[in-house]
Amino acid sequence: MKKETLLFYDAYRQFYQMADRSDAFRAFCRDAFGSDFSQDGFSDLSQVDRILPHIPQTGDVHILDIICGNGKMLGYLQQKTGAFIHGFDYSEAAIQTAQRLFPARSDFRVGIIGETDYPDAAFDVVTAMDTLYFAKDMTGLVRQIKRWLKPGGVFFAGYTEGDVVPRTENVHTTLLAKALSANAMDYQAEDITQETYALLKRKRAAAQAHRAAFLAEGNGKWYELLLQQTDCAAEPFSSFREKMARYLYTVQE
Predict the structure, then answer these.
(1) CA–CA dist 153, 64 (Å, integer)
(2) Is residue 45 part of a domain?
(3) Distance CA 137, CA 147 (A)
(4) What percent of the chain has pLDDT over 90?
(5) CB 154 within 8 A of CB 252
(6) Phi and psi angles of residue 172, each rounded to the nearest 5 degrees, phi first
(7) In the beta sheet, which residues pair with residue 251?
(8) Domain residues for 112?
C-alpha cells in the first residue's frame, strides 16, 4: 500500500517536521499534557503513567508502540524501566527523529499498520495511544497483537470515539472491544471521557498562552488547528459526552 494514500499522511509528515523544530509546540505540550511527547491527541502524562505498572521491572523487557510517532512516549517508558523499545510509523520524518533521539536499545522502523509484522511472543507490552483508527482491519490487527505478546504480556490502548471514528453506545460496543472479543481477549476498560474533556480545556488554554510564540515561529496554522481541535471543549460536558468518548483498554494474555 502506498503511504501517500493513507489517512492524514501529508498532514502528519508536516506535523512531525514542525514538532521537531518548534519551541512553542514543545512548551505547549508540557503545559497541556504534563510532558512533551509531541502529542497530537489526548495522551497526557497521567495516561502514559498508567502503562508503567504493566511493564516488568526485571528481565529482558521489550515494549512495542503501534504508530509510535517520534518515539518520545517510548523514550519516557524506557527511561522509567530500562526496557528495549520498538516502534513503527508511516512517517519517515517521525522515525528519523525517533532514531536520532533514542539510539540505544531501540528498533524504530517505517511501517504501515496491518502490514508491519514482528515475531511471535516478542513483546512484554504493546501500546497503541490514539492510533488504532488507522487500522483497515481492526480484528486482524488485534489478532497480530495477540500473537506478538509474550505469555502474560499486556496490551494497553487509548481509544477515542466521536473524532475520527463514530461514537457508539459504550465501552463494550466500540470497534476495538468487538475486535478483542472476536479474538477471545478479555479486557478491562476505563471510561476517561470526563478526564478528556478537562484535558481539552487545558489544551485550549495552553495554545492561547503560547499564541505569540507560535506566530513568531511562523507556525500560526498549527496554533489555529489547536484551537479548532478544542472547540468542542467550549460546550457543556453533557453535550460533549453525547458526541465523544474516550476509553483506556487493558488486556493481559
Answers:
(1) 11
(2) no
(3) 16
(4) 86
(5) yes
(6) -95, -5
(7) 155, 187
(8) 59-194+235-252
Res 164 pLDDT > 90: no
Read off the pLDDT of residues 194-210 as tens digits, 9 standing for 90 and up.
999 999 999 999 999 99
In this predicted model, what pLDDT tens digit does every residue of 119-149 receive, in sequence order? 999 999 999 999 998 899 999 999 999 999 9
Size of the chain in residues: 253
* β-pair type (84-89, 62-66): parallel
User: Alpha-carbon distance 122 to 186, whole Å?
Assistant: 20
pTM: 0.94
Distance CA 66, CA 116 (A): 10
What is the number of H-type helices and E-type strands within the chain? 11, 7
CA dihedral 160, 163, 169, 170 (to 10 degrees): 10
Q: Decide if 215 is inside a domain.
A: no
- d(Cα 199, Cα 124) in Å, to the nearest integer? 29
> Is the CB of residue 116 less than 8 Å from the CB of residue 109?
yes
Domain assignment present for 172: yes
C-alpha cell at 201: 480545556
